[in-house]
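User: Modeling request: complex.
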Amino acid sequence: MTATQPARERRHRTQAERSERTRNALLDATVECLIELGYARTSVHEICARAGVSKGAQQHHFSTKAELMATAVEHLTTRIQAEIAAAAGDLGDPPELVEHGVDLIWQGFAGTLSAAVMELWVAARTDPELAAAIKPVDRALGRSTLELFRSLAPGVPQHTLDTLYWLTVNLIRGLALDAQLGGDASRRTQLLNEWKRIALAVYRDDVAR
Amino acid sequence: MTATQPARERRHRTQAERSERTRNALLDATVECLIELGYARTSVHEICARAGVSKGAQQHHFSTKAELMATAVEHLTTRIQAEIAAAAGDLGDPPELVEHGVDLIWQGFAGTLSAAVMELWVAARTDPELAAAIKPVDRALGRSTLELFRSLAPGVPQHTLDTLYWLTVNLIRGLALDAQLGGDASRRTQLLNEWKRIALAVYRDDVAR
DNA sequence: TGGAAAACATTCCAACTGGCATGTAAGTTC
DNA sequence: GAACTTACATGCCAGTTGGAATGTTTTCCA
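Assistant: Request completed. Predicted assembly structure:
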C-alpha cells in the first residue's frame, strides 16, 4: 500500500501473505494426503507434517479437522476448474468436437485430483457436515464446466449439449472408479470410443431434426 | 452323521453351524457398518457390538480387520448377485427390454448394498491388500451379470449387448455416486430416460445394419 | 518505539483403535 | 468319559487419533 516498501525480500512479510501461504500449504497437503493415503488414513498429524506446519498453526487456521476438510473441498475444486480451463483449447467443429469434449471431461473428472474428490465424496455420504460443504461446491464445478462447453460449442442445441454433457460426466465418473481400482485400461479406452461414436450420432440426429 | 441325533433343537448345535452363524453375523454387521458409518468410521469394535459377538470370537474367525473386510467383499457380492437374480424376471422384447435392463442394472449397482461396495472400492484404491481381494470378486460380478443378460436377451448381437451393458454399468455407477451425495433425483431419472432412449436407438441401429 | 494482536511452535491428554494373551465353555473323537 | 479340538469371552496394551493449553515469535499500528 505505502510507497516505503523495504527492498529486502527475504521471507514473506505481510501477515496476509504469511497466512495465505501456510493455509495453502495445509490445503495442498490435505489434497495430497487424500490422493496418496485416502480419507481413512489421512490424519491431521500427517497433513501438518507434509505441509511443514506445526499443529498449533493448523489449529490457528482451521480449528477442527472437519473445517480443514470442508475448506479443502473448495481448494480442490478451484484447482480442478483451473486444470480444465487450461486444458480447454479450441474444441474444433462437430466431428472432433465431441471427441475432444469427452477427452476434456475425462481429464477433469478422472484425473489425479479426482481421486481426492472421490474420497471426499464417499466420506461425505456418512458425514452430513462434509456433505453440506461439498454439495454447493460440486454443483458449481459441474455448472461452470457446462458453461464452458456452452461457450466453446455455441452451435450445439442446448438440450443436446446438456444431455450429452451430464451423461458423459457420470459415465466418466463411473469409469474413473474402475480406473482407480486398476481395471483394464484398453477396455476403458475402447468403451470411451464407443461412447464418442454414440454421442456423435446423437448430436447429428438432434441437429438434423 | 450318526443316527443318534438328539431331538432337542434348542440352540444351534454342530460346530460347523455354530461357526457359520457367527461368521455371517460378523459379515452382515460389517456390511451394515459400511453402509451406515462408512469405511473410515467402521471399527471392529462396532462390528462386534452389532453382530452380538465378542472380540475374541471375531479374532477367532478373522484374525485381522483386513481379513474381515476382504471376506466381507465376497459376502457382499454374493448378496448383490442374489438380489439381481431375484429381480430379473422376464425382460420382455426389444422395446421394453432396454428399459427393463437399465432398471435392473440400476437396482443392482445403485441399490443400498452398492453403498458398501463404493466404500470398499474407494478404500481399496490406497490399500493394495483390499484391492487384491476386491478385483477378482468384482470382475466376477460384472461378468456374471452380463452373462445373465445374455441369457435373458439372446436375440441381441453380442457386441451391442456388451457395449450397452458396460456403458450402462459405468454410467449408473457415476449416477449412484451423485445419488449418494443427495443430488437431484428427478434430474437423475430424466438423464436415465434419455439414456434409455439413446440405448434403444443404438440397439435398433446395430440390428438394422 | 512500544505494545497489542496475529501467526506460529510445543507439549500434553483423554479417547479410541486394532491386536493379542489368557481363560472358559461347547462340541468331537476315540 | 477322557483327551482333544474348536468356538467363544474378557481384559489388557501399545500406538494413534483429534483437540486443547500454553509459550514464543513476527507483524502491525498508533
